UniProtKB/TrEMBL annotation, chain A:
Protein encoded by which gene: sdhC
Names of the cofactor(s): heme
Pfam entry (one): Sdh_cyt
Annotated transmembrane regions: 21-42, 54-75, 96-116
GO MF term set: electron transfer activity; metal ion binding
Family: Belongs to the cytochrome b560 family.
Protein name, as recorded: Succinate dehydrogenase, cytochrome b556 subunit
Organism from which the protein derives: Streptomyces antnestii
NCBIfam families per record: succ_dehyd_cytB
Main subcellular location of this protein, as a coarse class: membrane
TrEMBL record, chain B:
Keyword Membrane assigned: yes
Matching Gene3D superfamilies: Fumarate reductase/succinate dehydrogenase, transmembrane subunit (1.20.1300.10)
Superkingdom: Bacteria
Protein name as catalogued: Succinate dehydrogenase
Transmembrane residue ranges: 55-78, 98-118, 138-157
Keyword Heme belongs to the record: yes
Pfam families according to UniProt: Sdh_cyt (PF01127)
Main subcellular location: membrane
CDD domains: SQR_TypeA_SdhD_like (cd03500)
Compartments in which it is found: Membrane
One GO CC annotation: membrane
GO MF assignments: metal ion binding
């Protein structure tokens, strides 16, 4: 790494990269999500048809990825606020990032069954 | 407070820099304000839009943590998760003004938060003025369209559409 740069590829930079990537992904999903919900103004059948594809195992996996992105963006966003507004925020930014990662892992394990359970049942029978 | 007079002892700072510009309390070097305000500076130069946008990201972010995580809990976790969702489920929730208000606030805040985030991304990576113009034009068009469409759907929802 060259000396004298602001960011040197450690926790500060990578959390920024992850925040940016997850933010863009969530925003693109949001467009699609408003469009699919708008189908309730077309007919109950067209809405239910599109939502039924959301219940397939492959899309369930994508939903798990979406949950992962949202949870990281939410938790790291709170960390960014703490860095900006808490006087000791910059000093503890690394510890706060690893706290974020820890909470994220716990929540992702907790989301395994609720988000992916129905997909497993669809694949292997109930 | 003057971090730039601290003697060099931070590991990783080479002799080229001479003095370290930052320590654990100043993770980045102090950057002088590009335009110092003087008595000759006009009262309003360019407005405070960027600061308002910065503040909006943090305020809307805190609210969205509650709204979006609550939304995920209801839609993907409780009551059978995604398998319960259908027209009847939407009709049941939007019969209540509380959930209409929840979804309306979430729609507006999330779209504006995301649009401002993408505006920052475009500002960072698109260098040619024409590229910036077109990308932002596309972004603002899609944002206005999506907010208006979502708002219309929430307010004109008809459970007896059939």
């Amino acid at each position: 790494m060259p000396a004298g740069t602001l960011y040197r590829g450690r926790e500060g930079m990578w959390s920024w990269v992850a925040h940016r990537v997850t933010g863009v992904l969530i925003f693109f999903f949001l467009f699609v999500h408003v469009l699919d919900t708008a189908l309730v103004r077309v007919s109950p059948e067209s809405y239910d048809t599109v939502v039924s594809t959301y219940k397939t195992p492959i899309v369930a996996l994508l939903e798990y990825g979406l949950v992962a992105a949202i949870l990281f963006h939410a938790l790291n966003g709170l960390r960014v606020i703490a860095v900006d507004f808490w006087s000791k925020g910059p000093r503890y930014q690394k510890q706060m990032l690893w706290t974020v990662v820890g909470i994220w892992v716990v929540l992702m394990v907790g989301a395994l069954y609720p988000v992916l359970g129905h997909a497993v049942r669809a694949l292997f029978g109930s | 407070m003057s971090a730039d007079t601290t003697p060099a002892k931070t590991p990783g700072v080479g002799p080229v820099e001479g003095v370290t510009l930052y320590d654990v309390d100043h993770p980045a070097p102090v950057i002088e304000a590009p335009r110092k305000r003087t008595s000759k500076t006009p009262r309003a130069t360019r407005g405070n839009f960027e600061m308002a946008a910065w503040l909006f990201m943090r305020l809307s972010g805190v609210v969205l943590v509650v709204l979006v995580l609550g939304h995920l809990l209801i839609q993907l976790v409780l009551d059978g998760g995604v398998s319960k969702i259908g027209f009847a489920f939407v009709a049941g929730r939007w019969a209540s003004p509380f959930w209409q208000g929840w979804d309306l606030l979430m729609l507006w805040l999330a779209m504006l938060h995301g649009a401002n985030g993408l505006r920052t991304v475009i500002n960072d990576y698109a260098e040619r003025p024409n590229t910036r113009l077109w990308l932002k034009g596309l972004l603002y068009t899609a944002t206005v369209f999506t907010i208006l469409l979502g708002t219309l759907v929430i307010f004109t929802f008809d459970p007896n559409i059939r």
